[in-house]
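step: validate -> pass
step: tokenize input -> pass
step: predict -> running
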Amino acid sequence: MAVSDPISAACGAASRMSRLQRRMDRPVRRVLPRSLLGRTLLIILIPLLVTQGISLELFYGNYLKVVSRRLSGSVAGDVVLTLDLLDRYHAAGDRDWITRRVRERTQLDMNWNPGQILRRTGSTHVLGPMDEDLAEALRSSIGRPTYVDWIDDPRAVHIRIQMPDGVLDIGAPRKRLYVAPIWLFVAWGVGSTLLLFLIASIFMRNQVRAIRRLARAAELFGLGRDIGPIHPEGAQEVRKAAIAFNRMQERVFRFVAQRTAVLAGVSHDLRTPLTRLRLSLAMIPQQGTIRAGELQADVADMIGDVAEMERMIASYLSFARGEGAENPVSVDVGQLLDEVASAFRRAGGVILSVSIPKPVDAVLRADAFRRVLDNLLENARRHGGRVALSAQHDERGVVICVDDDGPGIASEKREAVFRPFESGRDGGTGLGLTIARDIVRAHGGDITLQGSRLGGLQVRIVLPL
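step: predict -> pass
step: emit ->
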């Protein structure tokens, strides 16, 4: 119990955290967009806003504040110097001369309002740190009541100072206090964000359109509508998905066509042995005296017809069953060829050679692929040929060749033998090569026929790595 209690507590804490996380995820999912386009644009928009906010804070919080303090300190220094001169020289002519020289040298326009009393102190507020910086500079430099007006005059900032005999109104040009309009920087940040977001929206809509078209094609294909191959477009991954969908669609259509052809040919192939059975059964009662030898021959013929039907039905079931239940695994192709060759020799076939220069591995459905090789070797044996097996790596993948020295197949007929019921000689059903191609293509490869170096036929199987 001492050991299990901490474990139970940890499991309980993890369970509570999981429930809490699920409860927190629900409101987040309600707020988030449901479409891929909306979520992608949100992923783009949030970093843009964060980046612009950081830029604004860096500008507003550092550069603009430093420059604003320096400009405010410069204006406050000129005002303090002017007040010091006015306190030092009291004559009327001196005061006019001081205010005139200050206007010429510092661009500060001074007006004297004798007898007035400053009724307000402090400062009006504008966007930016300039108002607070100027008020603080004046407060720390001048020991008198002051009022800073940023609103009344659009061209100047008025600094009103309470003097012993009146109010001194100092008009400071705004260019001496403003670095740049804050709204201009904000407009630039917002405008650039909107522009980039618009460009990203256009590009992402094109990408999402390709995904929507692919989803629509998959939906229609699932409803059984032949929409034809879709045009690959969009990003590389979306193009690959479209190409894979086209290949899947082609394989499914080919699969359905092959199964339909098999179902259409079942009645035709089974009709012949059934007709022979019907005739044999009809002839037996019509014989007046049935001799044992003749009856035995008829029974043997009927047993042969039944065996032929069983063989054809087994081929149909094998073809219709497919190989989807077996999982692909990594297989040593050399070992697989050796096993198939040994079984072929035991069945009476002749193997000339098994050539594998280097170890070859491939991801296969081993039992299904063994059926392919068995079928190819049986075809070679049935046509009286000796066989040579080989496997190697190629730039296209794994290449497996089955060569024989039999009569071969004419080049114009090589593609036709892959169709169902095309080669029913020697008791065959014409499904062997059809099943072989179906299995190989289910592995993503292909099977072709060509002339052999032994003088007969070569079956070449190419499998992807």
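step: describe -> The mean pLDDT is 78.
step: cleanup -> pass
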